[in-house]
Predict the structure of ADP-ribosylation factor-like protein 8.
Amino acid sequence: TFYAKKLEVVLVGLENSGKTTLLNVLAAGRPVETCPTIGLNVKLVRKGGVQMKCWDIGGQAQYRSEWGRYTRGCDVIIFVVDSHAIESIPLARKELHRLLEDRELATTPVLVVSNKIDLEPHVTEGDLIRDLNLDYVTENPWIVIPISALKVVNVDQVLQWLIKQGN
Ligand code: GDP
C-alpha cells in the first residue's frame, strides 16, 4: 500500500467545485459508494490505508450540526475550491472558516485544492490565499495546491501530500 497507516480524509467544498471528480481520480476510477443518510450526500471511498469521506457544504446549513459526525477523528481536510467560479470564493471563505471553528479540527492539516485551473480565468494561488483569508488560519497547518481534477493536472502533488500526512 501507498500508506503506512490508516488515513482519514475529509473532502469538503461548495457544490460543483469538483470533489466527486477528484475523489474518483484519487480512487483510480473505482466506483464511489453513496451514503444518503440524513440528507447529507456523503460519499465514501476506501483505498489501501485511506478512507475518504466527501460532502458538499453550503446550502446545507440545516445539517451543520451533523458535520462533527463526519469530521471527528479525521486526519486531514481537503477543501476544494472552484478557481474558475471567482464569484463563489467569498462563500467558500465563509464556509471554510466556519468549518475550522470546530475545536475538534483545531490542528488538523488543511489542503486547499484550487481546482479547474484548466479554465480561464481562474484565481491565482496568491489571490486565493488572500481571498480565503488563509493568513488568519494560524493553528491548522495549510497548503494550497492548484490542480485540474478533470485533466489530471497536479493530482500527483495531492497524492504526495496525502502520503506525507500518512507517514
Ligand atoms: P462536486 O459537486 O464538488 O462533487 O463537483 P463534481 O466533481 O461533480 O464536478 C462538477 C462539474 O465540474 C462537473 O461537470 C465536472 O466535470 C467539472 N469539473 C470538475 N473538475 C474539473 C476541472 O478540473 N476542470 C474543469 N474544466 N471541470 C471540472
About this structure: The chain has a mean pLDDT of 88. Helices lie at 19-26, 67-71, 89-100, 125-131, 155-166.
